[in-house]
Amino acid sequence: MEYQYTDEELSRLHDTLYDILHETIRVCHKLNIRYFIIGGTCIGAFFWKGIIPWDDDIDIGMTREDYDRFLAEAPAELGKDYFLQWYKTDRHAPFFFAKVRKHNTLFLESMFSRVPMHHGIFVDVFPFDKVPRSRTAEKIQFHAMGFLNACFIAKEVWQYKWCGKCEVPEPRPRGFVPCLMTRITNAVLPKSAIYRLMTGIQTMFNGCGADRYNLMSTDCDHISVGSINNLQTMTFGPLEVAAPADVETYLNNHYPGLQKYPPVEQRKTHRPARLDFG
Question: pTM above the 0.85 mark?
Answer without folding.
Answer: yes
